[in-house]
Amino acid sequence: MKMPVAFLLLLALCNAIKVHGEESEGQCDYKLTLDPRPHSVSILEFGAVGDGKTLNTIAFQNAIFYLKSFADKGGAQLYVPPGKWLTGSFNLTSHLTLFLEKGAVILGSQDPSHWDIVDPLPSYGRGIELPGKRYRSLINGYMLNDVAITGDNGTIDGQGSVWWDWFSSQSLNYSRPHLVELISSEDIVVSNLTFLNAPAYSIHPVYCSNVHIQNLSVYAPPKSPYTVGIVPDSSKNVCIEDCSIAMGHDSIALKSGWDEYGISYGRQTTDVHIRRVHLQSSSGSSIAFGSEMSGGISNVQVEKVHLQDSLVGIEFRTTKGRGGYFKDIIISDVELDNIVTAFVACGDCGSHPDDDFDPNALPVVDKITLKNIIGTSISVAGNFTGIQESPFTNICLSHVTLSINSASSTSWVCSYVSGFSESVSPEPCPDLESSYSNSSSTCFSLLKSYGRAAAAF
Ligand SMILES: *[C@@H]1O[C@H](CO)[C@@H](O)[C@H](O)[C@H]1NC(C)=O
Ligand SMILES: *[C@@H]1O[C@H](CO)[C@@H](O)[C@H](O)[C@H]1NC(C)=O
Ligand SMILES: *[C@@H]1O[C@H](CO)[C@@H](O)[C@H](O)[C@H]1NC(C)=O
Ligand SMILES: *[C@@H]1O[C@H](CO)[C@@H](O)[C@H](O)[C@H]1NC(C)=O
Ligand SMILES: *[C@@H]1O[C@H](CO)[C@@H](O)[C@H](O)[C@H]1NC(C)=O
Ligand SMILES: *[C@@H]1O[C@H](CO)[C@@H](O)[C@H](O)[C@H]1NC(C)=O
Ligand SMILES: *[C@@H]1O[C@H](CO)[C@@H](O)[C@H](O)[C@H]1NC(C)=O
Fold first, then answer.
1. Which ligand is located closest to the Cα atom of residue 433?
2. Which residues does a 6 A CB cutoff place in the pocket of ligand 7?
3. Cβ(91) – ligand 1 distance below 6 Å
4. Where is the Rhamnogalacturonase A/B/Epimerase-like pectate lyase domain (predicted)?
5. What is the pTM of this model?
6. Which CATH number fits domain 5-31+83-456: 3.40.50.720, 3.40.640.10, 2.160.20.10, 3.40.30.10?
7. How far is CA 327 from CA 216, 259, 270, 303, 416, in A?
8. Ligand 7 pocket: which of 395, 434, 440, 441 to mutate (most atoms <8 Å of CB)?
9. pLDDT tens digits for 395-448?
């Protein structure tokens, strides 16, 4: 059958990822479909050996280079069959599906010479852990569109233990790499995979839009230092759903740049929807906002989440010098179990990239709603420590029931914070009990903007 050229072109344009929904309430509310790519090659065709010992960096690079030529022909799939595929860092290309078959494991090399060294991100000005450059991530994308990293529960394993040891013994020369980093890219899907043992972050979309992360297991051991799961950073239109994440530090951390670098880069993280996730964070927060947030973070909806065995459940971290803001954030339908502090908002958390930060750049924290929350085995209900020169405002708590381990008078700690609460147990601090008529309209309008029933208020 012959098809007209115009139709083929249309097919190519529509191929693979349809990320725009008509009537979306949030960034997850459209149907995600991954159409098969018209071309597929196996990594075996590029001489790769899946014995867990042979280094396959060149095979991955050559395969991707070859598949670049299919970008205008509907894109292509790189198929990774069962086996252990050791590699150093490599780049993806546009209109590509990287598919990891069941039993396929991409292993990150433990030899640092297999990881390139690259410039810091402009919104950070330096490596996060050390001044200067940083290691390139294992799997990278730069200015791409229409990319899927998916499979039948294949695994990407960073074998991070060497990096954790170097970090802990302070013998790193550059900041640690991540497993997947996509920079300035759009229409990205990461789905149906397991991510293990990231050197630092597992998945880092930065300056991206239309990112859909679905049905992943992400894991690093409880003692792995500062390992983080998913980090949407200066990105917009991000959906994270149906994921199970257990990390040494934070499970999901939303960021947007660091002090003067983040302020001048000026790229916010916005329009983020997170739902149906199971999170565990031994030494950090199940869901963290910041501390790097200088480009601002807004319009975030988190719902139907289960947080367990963590130091903190939900945490907003910022500090003087950050600038930026957290605003219009709604978190609802949360179950917490065995968490030291359920909620933290901290105005003195986070370090500075260098001495050139502006101490007068004060962050703004406004319109944060926490509703329909049940917690068991909690030690401290909430610790809201605002900034004297820029108090946190419109913090709304509704229908929050936390059972505290040992009844103590310090269930809630509040300073430089104001807001509204309704049906909250244990009784919150007076700062969060301003009169119904005042703050309820703010909480109410927040909910209304998402088309929700506002009956709770
Ligand atoms: C990978 O992409 C970067 C740009 O982000 C480029 O500098 C580098 O040369 C690429 N590496 C390869 C092997 O293509
Ligand atoms: C999640 O991924 C697994 C394989 O990793 C697959 O069997 C399952 O069907 C997926 N679930 C959804 C809802 O896509
Ligand atoms: C995916 O594989 C991991 C181990 O590699 C396993 O723990 C997990 O249960 C699997 N998930 C599914 C949906 O099969
Ligand atoms: C850091 O550099 C020193 C000096 O070149 C080198 O001996 C050491 O192996 C490097 N550390 C790592 C983790 O690569
Ligand atoms: C995930 O896997 C399931 C089961 O194979 C499949 O139906 C679904 O389309 C996949 N989803 C994505 C987004 O890859
Ligand atoms: C509350 O947070 C402040 C500032 O981060 C900290 O100093 C204090 O120890 C915390 N209090 C509790 C009870 O966790
Ligand atoms: C709350 O209402 C009181 C009295 O109506 C008013 O003085 C106060 O400024 C209001 N506060 C806010 C935050 O709107």
1. 7
2. 435, 438
3. yes
4. 41-87
5. 0.91
6. 2.160.20.10
7. 28, 18, 10, 17, 16
8. 434
9. 999 999 999 987 665 799 999 999 999 899 999 999 888 655 555 556 655 554
